[in-house]
């Protein structure tokens, strides 16, 4: 089939950019993107696009009105199209069988029924799955397409063409992809449909990168690819926790690992958890499929990838609380970045949501700033339970927004704050005037670098107490947690390891070697404390800690004066 007209159902993060690039590279092919939202279609027809991607506006402007169109008239454009892409969402189920893991197919079924009704007796059509879907979705869609037609039936050939673009680099990924997968049935009709789409891609993608394969292999390849990426991120995050406990530097370890040609350096940057619309959702889809097929061990293996991601986010929150004298109640904390990664407005499953909620649950007052995400989107994300953004009709408030302020700049967010949490690695955050920020913050001023992109040494020279994920702990934080190594050990890593061991699982090995303690005691049960009593204890602890900090500072000053006097005395004797 010679494809001259293309229609796409869905003008979201997948349909909009991918179809814009297709129209840009194939000027003789008419591409129409269809969406049920008039507001979204109007945004695509303006210069204020509904989503941000570097280079997207330029590509849209080059093709829009020439051979790229955005419309709400589904019936007309589906009937005229030779090839129909389906780019609708498959959100994770929130209730019922498979809740939290399985995908919901309501949008897909609605799209299939719309295609069947619009294309009655219109000749053969190719229907391509573009958005990632679980295995065997094409089979279900074929049944819906064939079962929803009356009278003269249209022959549909369903193929798989998963999209591998990444938010923040979507245009570059579409224009210069690593590979293009096209899966079809092992029949003459199926292979002909695969070849028809492959000819379009070969106009700008080298032939060796356009890969034809079986229908189920293509569908599974997308889930497996994202699962592998998520696994790498969780693996290096697990190593980052070990680095902190042993005094190693995760960036040095990551570099050493990445120089191995068998591993490569991609996706080996430690951070406070991965997010986005794909990784976690697809891993959980994979878990559910494995559970459904009785592959329990395989399901548990991939489930641990998600569990590690959740653990690293909660660990980051605990580190913030522990570092700030074990209480953040009433303290202002600036959160820099809310999108799940830089150069995108996508906030689906962003780590920032879990970090912010963890801080709020402990009583903090938050000031959030992101260069591209709208304040309304931030407030919406904070109000909805996890996964609800993909099902907008399910809106239930879960946290109070009274202590969440969305700032207009990073400097406004940090003004008067006790601590600063960097959650998204926007490039502009690296070039902030941290001396001015330090002057505007409460003291001691804390920086919690959840992405490892700031100059920790420079920040400490300014006066910040710095925690960088996967890096050796700031001396102030080690002192706070009873990790003062004294003067005898100095920087001896063996002394450091022993001190850390007293606070970690290494102490278990030591107790086994030394034998059980001579005496043991059983603590009597105590009555649970009220919230007021708990707050009073925290306030007392904070006062004692601040007094200790003042005594330590005074002692250090006196020691410095004594050393200075001793030096002057030695000079006079000489």
UniProtKB/TrEMBL annotation:
PANTHER family named among the record's database cross-references: UDP-GLUCOSE 6-DEHYDROGENASE, UDP-GLUCOSE DEHYDROGENASE/UDP-MANNAC DEHYDROGENASE
One of the GO biological process terms: UDP-glucuronate biosynthetic process
Residues annotated to bind NAD(+): 10-15, 35, 40, 88-92, 348
Compositionally biased intervals (Low complexity): 540-552
Domain called UDP-glucose/GDP-mannose dehydrogenase C-terminal: residue spans: 334-456
Source organism (scientific name): Volvox africanus
Residue numbers spanned by region Disordered: 505-574
Protein name per the record: UDP-glucose 6-dehydrogenase
Enzyme class at the top of the EC tree: oxidoreductase
SMART domains for this protein: UDPG_MGDP_dh_C
Gene Ontology molecular function, alphabetical: NAD binding; UDP-glucose 6-dehydrogenase activity
E.C. number: 1.1.1.22
Pfam families cross-referenced by the UniProt entry: UDPG_MGDP_dh, UDPG_MGDP_dh_C, UDPG_MGDP_dh_N
Protein family membership: Belongs to the UDP-glucose/GDP-mannose dehydrogenase family.
Record-level GO cellular component terms: nucleus
């Amino acid at each position: 089939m010679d494809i001259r007209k293309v229609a796409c159902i869905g003008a979201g993060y997948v349909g909009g950019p991918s179809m814009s690039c297709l129209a840009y590279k194939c000027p003789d092919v008419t591409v129409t993107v269809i969406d049920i939202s008039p507001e979204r279609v109007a945004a695509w027809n303006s210069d204020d696009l509904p989503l941000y991607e570097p280079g997207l506006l330029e590509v849209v402007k080059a093709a829009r009105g020439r051979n790229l169109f955005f419309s709400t008239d589904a019936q007309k454009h589906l009937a005229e199209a030779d090839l129909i892409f389906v780019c609708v969402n498959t959100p994770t189920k929130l209730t019922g069988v498979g809740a939290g893991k399985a995908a919901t197919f309501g949008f897909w079924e609605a799209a299939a029924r719309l295609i069947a009704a619009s294309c009655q007796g219109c000749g053969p059509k190719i229907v391509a799955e573009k958005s990632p879907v679980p295995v065997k979705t094409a089979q279900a869609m074929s049944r819906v397409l064939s079962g929803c037609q009356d009278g003269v039936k249209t022959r549909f050939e369903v193929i798989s063409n998963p999209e591998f673009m990444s938010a923040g680099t979507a245009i570059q990924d579409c224009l210069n992809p690593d590979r293009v997968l096209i899966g079809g049935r092992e029949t003459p009709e199926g292979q002909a449909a695969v070849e028809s789409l492959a000819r379009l891609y070969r106009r700008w993608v080298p032939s060796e990168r356009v890969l034809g394969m079986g229908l189920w292999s293509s569908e599974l390849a997308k889930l497996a690819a994202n699962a592998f990426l998520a696994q790498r991120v969780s693996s290096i995050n697990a190593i980052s926790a070990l680095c902190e406990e042993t005094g190693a530097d995760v960036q040095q370890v990551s570099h050493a690992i990445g120089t191995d040609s068998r591993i490569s350096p991609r996706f080996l940057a430690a951070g406070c958890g991965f997010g986005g619309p794909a990784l976690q959702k697809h891993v959980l889809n994979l878990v559910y499929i494995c559970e459904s097929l009785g592959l329990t061990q395989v399901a548990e293996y991939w489930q641990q990838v998600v569990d590690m991601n959740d653990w690293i986010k909660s660990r980051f929150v605990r580190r913030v609380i522990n570092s700030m004298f074990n209480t953040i109640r009433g303290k202002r904390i600036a959160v820099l970045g809310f999108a799940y990664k830089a150069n995108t407005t996508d906030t689906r499953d962003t780590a920032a949501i879990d970090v912010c909620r963890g801080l709020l649950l402990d009583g903090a007052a938050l000031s959030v700033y992101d260069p591209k995400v709208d304040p309304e989107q931030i407030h919406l994300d904070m109000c909805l339970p996890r996964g609800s953004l993909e099902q907008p009709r399910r809106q239930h408030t879960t946290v109070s927004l009274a202590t969440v302020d969305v700032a207009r700049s990073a400097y406004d967010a940090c003004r008067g704050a006790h601590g600063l949490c960097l959650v998204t690695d926007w490039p502009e955050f690296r070039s902030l005037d941290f001396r001015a920020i330090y002057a505007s913050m409460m003291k001691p001023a804390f920086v919690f670098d959840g992405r490892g992109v700031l100059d920790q040494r420079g920040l400490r020279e300014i006066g910040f107490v710095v925690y960088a994920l996967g890096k050796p702990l700031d001396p102030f934080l080690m002192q706070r947690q009873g990790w003062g190594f004294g003067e005898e050990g100095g920087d001896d890593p063996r002394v450091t390891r022993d001190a850390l061991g007293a606070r970690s699982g290494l102490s278990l090995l030591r107790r086994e070697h030394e034998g059980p303690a001579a005496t043991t005691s059983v603590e009597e049960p105590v009555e649970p404390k009220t919230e007021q009593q708990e707050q009073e204890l925290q306030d007392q602890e904070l006062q004692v800690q601040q007094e200790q900090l003042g005594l330590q500072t005074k002692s250090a000053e006196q020691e410095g004066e004594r050393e200075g006097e001793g030096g002057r005395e030695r000079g006079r004797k000489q």
